[in-house]
Amino acid sequence: MNQPYIKATPEPPAIRDAMAKASEREEGGLPVYDFSSGNIGRLIGDYQVFEGFSLETGEVPEGFQGVAEAIKRGLRKSFVESPVGLSYSPTGGTGIQKKNVIKYFQQVHNVPLSDEQTERVIVAAGGQQAMAAALRSISPETEVLVPKWDYAPVVGIASDESWKLIKLPASGSGGFALESLKEKANKGSVFYTSMPNNPSGYVSAEKLSKAVEVMAEKGGAVIWDAPYLFTMFELRDGEASFAPDFLQDELAQFSEIAEEYSEHMCILSSISKTCLSAGLRYGFATASKKWIDNMNAIIGRENLSSPTPSFIIGNEILTDFVDGKIRVHEWASRLLASRFNYLLENDVPLLLPENGKYGALYALMETSELGSKVKDKLAKQGVITVPAKPFFGDEVNAVRLSLVSVPFVEGDKLWEENVDKLAGLID
To answer: pTM for the complete prediction?
Structure first.
């Protein structure tokens, strides 16, 4: 498939390539005579540093027990059976990790990947590293279109690249103008979007599907940033609620997109939001071989090794998630809906979607003056928010509120205290 919007594939970094080959042989049970890298942590690889290891999980929220068990297995594999967590591990993921990622994209997105197409996936140190590598793989002559409301770092990455960034006008409550995309997309251009949207929470499988269709017709591509796919809830009659059936219906609609158009897509995801494990930095992506080769080269030039324990633990969590043993996202989505309701009950002015669907972990609070000024005023009272300007591209009367930066305690009293303080300052 011709992909003029992707840079010519560079030679892989020599050390990264050699380490990956050594790892592949080890996983296959083949003899390895390894002279590949300065992997000094391997010097004690045949020693057992810790004689014993005992951890018992305590009382944790619904569904998190499975995550805790996966973390425990990952810690054991990283440091107890042998100290592999002190060694380098290949950037881009091992063969075992990549096959797990393939299962995820097969199950969640219906991407038509075979179990052996590991060259079509990559493991990264978080979804953001995958996003940056995907954008930096785009050729200099390409136009990249982005919704007016979208993830702030994209603009920063664009400022360091030679390709042209085009912001599409907003449509309705946080969505993008499809007609503008049809008008401005040229042959071989690329459309980036987060869906569900960070920061507006906008969700529409139908609009994303139409956008992918437009880009495919133009011979271009879509970068779909999808880490929030399992944190969606409904808004009806001014009240938020979560139901598993609603989530499954939405996932089914989204899965039809990649099933048909995966050749024109780079899909990004992670365990961060789905499994409440953002700090582990375990993200992944699927795209064409050429696109993945470019991403591998970019990451391999900047990081000689992946974060070994994070990748080991992250793979354990992903294993249990694709096997259906981890469902903590349902508990998280109910909590998100409850926290959203408390904002509404306290008359915090929010930008609400017109279609009654909401996603991501944030809410946009509308302000009577520029958000950057309001952010500073609130900060003087200890209320910390994020100005919406970086997500919008211009000054705008809004700030972004995180729904998850406050820890959960019984009855969610700490969240209520935070919202009470905020509401008291905006009266």
So the answer is: 0.94
Cα(24)–Cα(28) distance, integer angstroms: 6
Per DSSP bridges, beta strands 190-194 and 143-147 are: parallel
Name the token pair of 274. 């789905």
Q: What distance in Å separates the CA atoms of residue 263 and residue 275, rounded to the nearest whole number?
A: 28
The confidence score (pLDDT) of residue 281 equals 95
> Where along the chain do its domains lie?
95-303, 328-426
CB atoms within 10 A of CB 109: 24
Cβ–Cβ < 8 Å for 383, 407: no
Q: Are 231 and 329 in contact (CB under 8 A)?
A: yes
Q: For Cα atoms 274, 343, 280, give the angle at the middle one, nearest 5 degrees.
A: 25
Handedness of CA 345, 351, 354, 358 (dihedral sign): negative
Q: Is 168 helix (H, G, I), strand (E, B) or coil?
A: strand
Q: In angstroms, rounded to a whole number, what is the distance separating the alpha carbons of residues 264 and 217?
A: 10
Q: CA-CA distance, 331 to 233, in Å (whole number)?
A: 12
Percent of the chain's residues with pLDDT above 90 = 78
CATH of domain 95-303: 3.40.640.10
Q: What does the chain come to in residues?
A: 427
Which tokens sit at 103?
A: 């299962």
CB atoms within 10 A of CB 189: 23
Strands laid side by side in the 357-359 sheet: 239-241, 232-236, 357-359
**pLDDT, average across residues 66-78:** 95
Short-list 196, 142, 140, 143, CA closest to 173: 196
Integer Rg of the chain from CA: 22
Question: Please, are residues 364 and 324 in contact by the beta-carbon 8 Å criterion?
Answer: no
Question: Would the pLDDT of 427 be above 70?
Answer: no
What contacts 75, CB < 8 A, 6 or more positions away? 53, 55, 309, 313
- Provide the Cα torsion 101, 105, 111, 117; round to 10°: 10
- The encoded tokens of residue 363 equal 């809410």
Domains 95-303 and 328-426 share a fold: no
Q: How confident is the model at residue 59 (pLDDT cuts 50, 70, 90)?
A: confident
What is the architecture, at CATH level 2, of domain 328-426? Alpha-Beta Complex (3.90)
Concatenate the DSSP letters of all residues of 215-266 into one string.
HHHTT-EEEEE-TTTT-EEEEETTEEE--HHHHHHHHHHHHHHHHHHGGGEE
- 146: which strand partners? 167
Identity (one letter) of the amino acid at 16? R
